[in-house]
Amino acid sequence: MRVLVLGHGKTGKLVADVASERGHGVHVLDAKENPRGSALTAPFVAGFDVVIDFTTPEAVLTNLRACLAVGAKVVVGTTGWYNSLHDMSALALRKEGALLHGTNYSIGVQVMLKIAKQMAEPLRKAGYEFKIEETHHVTKLDAPSGTAISLQQALVGAGEVPITSVREGDVPGLHIVEAVSGADRLLLTHEAFSRRGFAEGAVRGAEWLSTRKGVYDFSDIFTEL
């Protein structure tokens, strides 16, 4: 499989490494080589089986439009663009391409989201109050994180759930759901030791997407990987 990786930050570099380890041909484009998506011409994109984007909220939409417009298969690991998800999904379907999106490509986080959804309503009925805290590296641009927002949505049965965002050091990602009653406290925690879990999930997602068309959420397909 030929993989085009957009973004040469810490996660993008790791995505490229993981894809190479899994036997795929990899080409990486950083921001300097792809200003405003200018490198993503139809002939260039056609040379790849899958595109994986780990860029920035400012760059991702331009990249998506360029790739999906020519029917490419795209995995998006970048967050902070979901207000445009409907439009990008419609473009992918119209051009008979493929789009896999997700706020977090860690299998552990996906399981955490399912647990959060299961515990929300019974704990709320028992009088528990919820809050979310997320910590990421100082260079992460969006706050709250996409994962924290997904957790908040998973806890829909828990009422209004506040999110506290912390940006410090080089933290890959720490998410804590806290449920507190007058009698006790329950903590649901996911701590990433590195970005490798995100990279492996994205590459495995790309392998899955390479034979498909349509629009998919990683949370719906991760058990198939």
Automatic annotation (TrEMBL):
SUPFAM superfamilies linked: Glyceraldehyde-3-phosphate dehydrogenase-like, C-terminal domain (SSF55347), NAD(P)-binding Rossmann-fold domains (SSF51735)
The organism's place on the tree of life at top rank: Bacteria
EC number: 1.17.1.8
This protein's UniProt keywords: Amino-acid biosynthesis, Diaminopimelate biosynthesis, Lysine biosynthesis, NAD, NADP, Oxidoreductase
GO cellular component: cytosol
Pathway: Amino-acid biosynthesis; L-lysine biosynthesis via DAP pathway; (S)-tetrahydrodipicolinate from L-aspartate: step 4/4
A Pfam family assignment: DapB_N
InterPro entries per record: DapB_C, DapB_N, DHDPR_bac, NAD(P)-bd_dom_sf
Single biological process term from Gene Ontology: diaminopimelate biosynthetic process
Reactions it catalyzes: (S)-2,3,4,5-tetrahydrodipicolinate + NAD(+) + H2O = (2S,4S)-4-hydroxy-2,3,4,5-tetrahydrodipicolinate + NADH + H(+); (S)-2,3,4,5-tetrahydrodipicolinate + NADP(+) + H2O = (2S,4S)-4-hydroxy-2,3,4,5-tetrahydrodipicolinate + NADPH + H(+)
Segments forming domain Dihydrodipicolinate reductase N-terminal: 1-85
One of the record's GO molecular function terms: 4-hydroxy-tetrahydrodipicolinate reductase
Residue ranges of every copy of the Dihydrodipicolinate reductase C-terminal domain listed in the record: 108-221
Record family assignment: Belongs to the DapB family.
Protein name according to UniProt: 4-hydroxy-tetrahydrodipicolinate reductase
